[in-house]
Amino acid sequence: MNKKPNVAILLATFNGNRWISGQIKSILSQKKINIKIFISDDGSTDGTLNYIQKMVKVDSRIVLLPQKKATKSSGKNFFRLISEVDVSKFDFVGFSDQDDLWTENKIYRHINLLKLKKVDGISSNVLAFWPNGQKKIINKSQPMKRYDYLFESAGPGCSFLITPWLFSKTKYHILTSKIIKEGVMHDWLIYAICRSYKKNWYIDSFSSLQYRQHSKNVMGANFGLSAFVNRFRMIKSGYYRNEVIKICALCSSISDDVNIIKIHNLLTNKTIISQLHLLKFIFSFRRKFVDCVFLFISILLFIF
């Protein structure tokens, strides 16, 4: 008989008491695998920590990391999980938010796709849902572009499943890179590291999780007028460009692709000439055509 694969799930929590029980239940209900959840709580004050502590006592599949000073950052909380959790006995590693709902075959489906597609990482479309009952598929499965990993993630981190090899590389760079210690989104970082090592990634068009939308989302569904306004603000403030620069700096230290160094240099020296040179790569920066156009205009108008 084939042995069930062992899967580690890294779950970051903060004041998610309203949703955490449903999320954990949906993870523990995964079919055809052995699963273990590693949780790092970032100083919850709403009962989340108490709930998790009770669950740890009754279910050995749940492990709570020792409490530390709150980081007040979802990204840093995930970085802590990646840095401290030992996954040497696991076949795959996944990531989870505190408030979503997974279908029971989410992980098993992605394990099969990882093997079939011969990739080191997989992500997927997700079904966003709101308290009022509204639902919408968030499509992330457009064809990957040559340098999209420098400018965007492969989708929400809660849809990620990766190999131990990719996990170890991510841990290594988190622990050793001064650039990364300044902070970037963990899902974007994982995708960028995978692609920088010239390893393959797959984005599944099928949604195997419900992606809860509410006022406390750190990163929610990226569509609609409010999302457009937020994206514009991130670009205008320089935040997005700075994040891209950090990713580019790391990727240029990994990859032998000279264009990555060139793109990094163009980003760090913002002039009219450098902006115009960036436009040469524009349709390799984002997967969605409309995002390429938006970025094109932002570069041309010196907003990005």
Description:
- The protein has 304 residues and is α/β, with parallel strands linked by helices.
- Helix content is 43%, strand content 16%.
- The protein has helices at residues 20-28, 48-58, 74-84, 106-117, 164-176, 178-181, 186-196, 224-236, 239-254, 258-268, 272-278, 289-300, and strands at 6-13, 34-41, 62-64, 92-96, 101-102, 121-124, 126-129, 135-138, 161-162, 201-204, 209-212.
- A 7-stranded mixed sheet has the order 3-2-1-4-9-6-10, with helices on both faces. The chain has a 4-stranded mixed sheet with strand order 5-11-7-8.
- Helix 2 links the parallel strand 2 and strand 3.
- Helix 5 (164-176) crosses helix 7.
- The longest helix has 16 residues, at 239-254.
- The chain is globular.
Question: What is the secondary structure topology, with strand pairs?
Answer:
Layout: E1 6-13, H1 20-28, E2 34-41, H2 48-58, E3 62-64, H3 74-84, E4 92-96, E5 101-102, H4 106-117, E6 121-124, E7 126-129, E8 135-138, E9 161-162, H5 164-176, H6 178-181, H7 186-196, E10 201-204, E11 209-212, H8 224-236, H9 239-254, H10 258-268, H11 272-278, H12 289-300
Parallel strand pairs: 1-2, 1-4, 2-3, 6-10, 7-11
Antiparallel strand pairs: 4-9, 5-11, 6-9, 7-8
Helix pairs in contact: 5-7, 7-9, 9-10
